[in-house]
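hey so i finally got around to running the thing on that chain from the lab meeting. sorry it took forever, my laptop kept dying and i had to restart like 3 times. anyway pasting the input first so we r on the same page abt which one it is
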Amino acid sequence: MSEPTTVLIVDDEELVRMGLCAVVDAQPDLRVVGQGADGAEVLPLVARLRPDVVLMDVRMPAIDGIQACRHLLARTDRPPRVLVITTFENDEYVYAALRAGASGFVLKRARPAQLADAIRVVARGDSLLFPAAIRRLAGAYAGGRGATRLADARLTGRELDVLRRMAAGRSNAEIAADLFLGVETVKTHVGNVLAKLGARDRTQAVIAAYESGLVSPAG
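ok and heres what got predicted. didnt touch it at all, straight out
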């Protein structure tokens, strides 16, 4: 049996932390390894516990989830994946956290099974969380900031085709079927897209696609 995915939970409300811990530890393939009450605790906890995923509130009093994501990526070798939790789906803080390096988000009202699945998806890094919700956030907050980044990446025509379908939330298998390619070929293209964009995962690549205008949040 493989080792469980380890999770660090960070939220300033103790009752919320307790509930999240109960949900995560009820899953045989997930395990809580620590808790924190503010983003200021994230770096030392990650350094000591080396979790696979940080499940973190986006709004906290001292250092919020946005700053904590930035610190993790800037100051940590092989940083864990970050899944932010939020009360409101259409929140500028959530979009800022995704731009700062979070791999996805989940609502605090999500069902336990949805939360567990979101952690698994982020841990794998091979799928995009809630593309429709990210599309709405991009439409509200993107502001065309990524055009230069995409131009500098010099993606090939095929890589642009793949990126468009990634932005639509298509899996590698679905992209392969759309483009009449093998799944392994699609995986290679996805890897090239991430490398050229300097994106840590699919979520970061998709944000670049929206911000560049390659993909319209409205369609």
